[in-house]
Amino acid sequence: MLTVKHIFLWTIKRESQYLSTWFIFDVCSTAPFQPIILLFTHKGNDLSFKVLNLLRLWRLNRVSTLFARLEKDIRFNYFWTRCSKLISVTLFAVHCAGCFNYMLADRYPYPENTWIGAVMPAFRSQSLWTRYVTALYWSITTLTTTGYGDLHAENPREMLFDIFYMLFNLGLTAYLIGNMTNLVVHGTSRTQKFRDSIYAASEFAARNQLPVSIKEQMLSHFCLQFKTEGYNQKTMLNGLPKGIRSSIAYSLFFPILRRAYLFHGVSNSFIAELVMEVQPEYFPPKEDIILQNEGAADIYLIVSGAVNMITTINGNEQVYAKVTNGDMFGEVGALCNIPQPFTFRTAELSQLLRISRTRLREAIQNHREDNDILMNNLLQKLKLPENLPEVNQPDRRFLSKYDLFHIPREEQMLQWPHQHYTEQKSIDLGSKVPISGDGPDSMKLLRQVPQKEDIHNKSNCKYRLSDGMMNREEDLNEVRINCETKTSAEEFCIKIKSEDKTTASSQQTILTKMQPGSPHRASENISRSRYQDYSGIKAANKRVTIHIYPHNATGSTVQNGKLINLPGSLEELIKIGRQKFPDFHPTKVVSRDHAEIDDIGVIRDGDHIFFLQI
To answer: Could you give the residue ranges of the DSSP H alpha helices within 367-475?
Structure first.
């Protein structure tokens, strides 16, 4: 801590250093030598006395220091400060050269043989103002290398002075031109860079024959980048210490993230960690930010502007919804690790906050208690609590099975609100469209499913065959499935098309009527082949990684895993395992936790399973 004693000692040391260095020069540059000598000798016009006055030029060091301080002072414009300095240097050089050249003419013994005496013989009788203007006129015309020829050197002294003066002018001119060029180029560099970018983009579009719409998007992007360059201070912020950057980000982005629906109820420490990774961005109108079916991308929060959610139906783009200030988009694909269901395109000039998916994952891993809150907010936004009635329960520990970034079966439910809009074809219970074949057992499922019904959760589904006979006109059988959840019970109809009435009537009953409330299980009258076909359809969109159980692996090293499509039965899975690992003969399948698997339905998409040889 500084004390009065320390300050006093520091002041004494600084003054002692000044007295031993520049003090004597400052005294000589300010001392009135001419009045002092005139007081004692009564002679003040001698040349020796006038030479002593040249010591006053030391004050130029103080003037240079003054301009250096002004250039660093943000209260003054840097451009005009530099221009003032250059003008002052030029005027001072012109003044000194004119005065020194007049002194040579005044001291020359033959006045008529001087540069001014040749055109003005009695120049000493002229007024001081006339002589000064004449001297400045000669100095400026010589400095600018104009040289009209009306005033020129007449004797060797003046010629020698003109030689050194013109050599000095070469350096001064280079200094002035270099500084002015630097100022002008620095002021117009952004505009020149922008024009070069526009020209390059136009040439690229013309050379590759790009559509006009794409060319306009490219040009609008560069225009917006040029206009908003002053608002993007990423380079400046990166040069600041982490503590200052954290305070700036907290002040700018914390209130915005707190108002977002996804972060309602999460801890302040979670948002404080996430706010450091937020990146502000600007997008012009009609620019695609996220494309449909694109992989998991970042999350965007709208600060100002509007973004359209666009889907493609039969090759035509249609606006599904519009998100505005304070809304988020991209969170479904990013959090659930599924392809993006929509294309997000700006409707107007928009300012967005981009949240990195990787940084969000790290923040969630550091704050596991906020994972359930985020998942609850996401499900509430997608209006899925009727499909997951546990959401409304006081104890939300169940949400651990819906862990973000790895949502097993529920990712199909998250896509369900959008599939009814984007898919016009029929789908079955596994969200897979079966293609009808030519055989008698081929069928086509036509969906008539309620929009928000959870048909993926088949824990309480009852099947019954319609009482009526086959419709003679449409040749259809109807199988009714009553799907009951804990909140509602509705019916929907699946129509099975048969190619031959006789063949269809002779087949075994596919699904029989079950008692209400009984658990969902295959009826004794259900054909095993049909059940296996349904299981195959259900698992067709699952991929798993198979391994050899380490304790039974042959060789010195363990075999690498292999990614396969999950078949419809365990027998087929074991058969595939024997094909993939020829020297290994598996008989059982176990999970990563060494639990035996005896039902193909419990295997989820992305699971790692191991073959066991006994």
So the answer is: 371-381, 410-422
pLDDT attached to residue 230: 62
The CA-atom distances, in angstroms, between 403 and each of 270, 272, 593 are 17, 22, 18
Cα-based distances in Å from 343 to 292, 349, 416, 422: 4, 17, 17, 12
What's this model's pTM, rounded to 2 decimal places? 0.46
User: Cβ(462)–Cβ(421) under 8 Å?
Assistant: no
Burial of 402 (0-12, 13-18, 19+ CB in 10 A): buried
CB atoms within 10 A of CB 549: 18
Instruction: Tell me the Cα Rg of the chain.
Output: 44
Residues 6+ positions from 555 with CB-CB distance below 8 Å: none
- Dist. CA 360–CA 298, nearest whole Å: 9
Most distant pair of Cα atoms in the chain: their distance: 145
Report the 10 Å Cβ neighbour count for 241.
8
**Strands 562-565 and 543-548: what pairing?**
antiparallel
Give the per-residue pLDDT at 232. 62
C-alpha closest to that of 360 among 378, 382, 339, 381: 378
Query: In which residue are the tokens 């519009």 written?
Result: 322
Q: Provide the pLDDT for residue 46.
A: 66
Residue with tokens 């999950």: 566
* Rounded Cα–Cα distance for residues 553 and 583 (Å): 9
Task: State which residues of the chain have pLDDT below 50.
Answer: 385-403, 406-539, 552-558
d(CA 446, CA 340): 26
d(CA 556, CA 318): 58
- Give the integer Cα–Cα distance in Å for 32 and 39: 11
